[in-house]
Specification:
CATH architecture of the largest domain: Roll
Bound molecules: zinc ion
Structural class: alpha+beta
Number of helices: 4
Number of domains: 2
Strand order of the largest sheet: 1-2-5-6-7-4-3
Helix content: 10-25%
Oligomer: single chain
Length: 216
């Protein structure tokens, strides 16, 4: 299942997205503080014709003229914008170490851009994903479970809800930079990652203070 980084499936089925925020990752994915994600499209396959895929515009169609996954993602957004279809749904996994992927939750693909990247010197796709607010835990269970890291990871929809509730500020001091999602009752003591009531925003300072056992 986890062979390709992006796999479209027509709603109401979930497609699959693999992302990485690690330094040196092949694509420029980014996670925003409000729980949303910008996910970069994928390159042409390496071939004799394209020995360096990183210098070629990311393709919407393949040689045979059929939509690539980039194209399927983009087309689903266009249908959604025109009111012809609901947004495509995805289960998003994040790479934390080689061979280790953790489940971030269910997301909706609601926007995209095909734009010039000055850093890369070519056109790339950027797909915008919003957390799906699914309070029924069963509906966002991953294909693979039994992984402790999955339970520890705070799903995107919880991040979005907590960020909004705490107004993007540390609950102790109001700081708006370097925020962390903190388990009020620690995960190691049975605290839930999927209950927004157990998650709060803390700044780096208050997060460290708590971790050291001095505070809240
Ligand atoms: Zn603080």
């Amino acid at each position: 299942m986890l062979q390709r980084g992006m796999q479209f499936r027509a709603p109401p089925a979930h497609g699959i997205i693999l992302m990485s925020l690690r330094p040196g990752a092949p694509y420029a994915d980014s996670a925003n503080a409000d729980g949303t994600i910008w996910y970069e499209g994928h390159d042409v396959p390496r071939s004799v014709e394209h020995p360096n895929p990183k210098v070629v515009d990311q393709p919407r169609t393949n040689r045979a003229g059929r939509l690539t996954e980039n194209g399927k993602f983009a087309e689903s957004v266009e249908k959604y914008r025109e009111g012809l279809a609901p947004p495509a749904r995805f289960h998003v996994y994040e790479k934390v170490r080689d061979g280790i992927w953790v489940f971030r939750g269910a997301y909706l693909l609601t926007d995209y851009r095909f734009e010039w990247s000055t850093r890369e010197g070519r056109n790339v796709f950027r797909f915008f994903l919003e957390p799906a607010f699914e309070t029924d835990k069963a509906s966002w269970m991953p294909e693979r479970s039994g992984d402790v890291e999955f339970e520890r990871r705070i799903p995107g929809w919880v991040q979005a809800l907590v960020y909004k509730r705490d107004r993007g500020r540390c609950v102790k001091c109001g700081e708006t930079k370097n925020l962390h999602f903190d388990h009020i009752l620690p995960f190691s003591k049975g605290g839930s990652s999927s209950d927004p009531e157990n998650i709060q925003l803390l700044c780096a300072h208050h997060n460290l203070e708590k971790g050291a056992g001095f505070g809240g």
